[in-house]
Write a structure and sequence with these properties.
Helix content: 25-40%
Strand content: 25-35%
Largest sheet: 8 strands, mixed
Order of helices and strands: HHEEEHEEHEHEHEHEHHEEEEH
Distance between the termini: 53 Å
Structural class: alpha+beta
Number of helices: 10
Shape: globular
């Protein structure tokens, strides 16, 4: 028998757990940068201790000058395997700061050179759905046509299809069209990684994601959807003439449909997520004295394995064996100056 190869996702989850445990202490405090800073510091510490040669292709924070794991940053111990990294220490920093649901810490790995780099384009138009309707979506079709196609694939009436959409003024026309055909809408303030993933969970009640969201989140989501078997299509969405002109200079076709294999061009994809606040997929972090409880999701596209990991962490013992501190004092403002 051939021995199973290494599932690096089981090491990645330690990074998302650490980020969630540290950022979760900032829940409801109204400080987005405090949330992000706590998560970034914890995640960077843990990923730098993984046996890999990793480069961040998809980082977070550049568009609003928040704390970040920056694009091009090298992580790990500098040994094989060579991997691209897509990371969002907190998908939903505002959700966490406001104490709202569906904030998660996420990271994805893939073979070096296989992740799409959106460069200067911070937003993409997206459509995503789960395995049962994976063949039905077409980003160039109208919202009405897509909803009807998904309804047929799921053997539902249009009125029973639920579409998840970011609650933004740019989506006013999209929301109106969905309402005009009497489909259901779930509006979310942030967190479209969780939103897209919820389309792949049979009991989530969400059938389809549509609308314009972050480009980094699109690539991270594509990694996750590759693991669970759904489908996603995207198109670059320049915000202005300057971004559109840069696309022309760089040879980036804003009319091209980006499929899953364009967003991540291999099947050796690993994904890990830990809940920060309660959500559709994962419970949020729970603090109980010196014990912290986390809920995580670990997936690998190559094997098709999906694991749910519920962990109990003894903070006092972690602080004793680690140079990084997980205790309540990690949430003091001075920790991230």
């Amino acid at each position: 028998m051939t021995a199973p190869d290494r599932n690096i996702a089981l090491e990645m989850v330690r990074a998302t757990e650490a980020a969630a445990m540290c950022a979760g202490r900032w829940m409801g405090r109204g400080d987005k940068n405090g949330v992000d800073g706590a998560a970034v510091n914890a995640m960077r510490f843990m990923l730098n201790n993984v046996k890999m040669d990793g480069v961040v292709v998809i980082g977070e924070g550049e568009k609003d000058e928040a704390p970040m794991l920056f694009n091009g940053e090298h992580l790990g111990l500098g040994v094989d395997p060579k991997v691209d990294i897509a990371v969002d220490p907190i998908d939903g920093t505002r959700l966490t700061a406001q104490g709202r649901q569906n904030a998660v810490s996420v990271v994805a790995f893939a073979d070096r050179g296989t992740m799409f780099n959106p460069q200067h384009i911070f937003y993409m138009d997206k459509i995503a759905t789960g395995p049962l309707a994976a063949h039905a979506i077409d980003i160039e079709a109208s919202p009405t046509e897509n909803i009807k196609a998904v309804a047929r694939a799921l053997n539902k009436s249009v009125e029973d299809v639920t579409v998840i959409v970011l609650d933004r003024p740019r989506h006013d026309e999209l929301i109106k069209e969905i309402r005009d055909i009497h489909a259901r809408i779930r509006l979310i303030p942030d967190g479209d990684v969780s939103g897209a993933l919820s389309t792949c969970k049979p009991d989530s009640g969400i059938d389809l994601l549509m609308g314009i969201g972050g480009s980094p989140e699109a690539v991270i989501t594509a990694c996750a959807i590759k693991c669970v078997g759904g489908n996603m299509q995207c198109k670059l969405w320049p915000r202005n003439d300057e971004e559109r002109d840069k696309c022309k200079e760089k040879g980036m076709d804003i009319n091209k449909i980006l499929n899953l294999n364009d967003l991540v061009a291999c099947d050796n994809v690993f994904f890990a997520a830990t809940g920060v606040t309660d959500g559709d997929w994962l419970k949020g972090v729970r603090y109980d004295g010196t014990v912290v409880h986390t809920s995580s999701l670990v997936m690998r596209a190559k094997s098709g394995t999906i694991r749910y990991i519920n962990a109990t962490h003894n903070i006092q013992k972690l602080d004793e064996i680690s140079s990084f501190k997980y205790g309540a004092e990690s949430a003091s403002e001075s920790s991230f100056l």
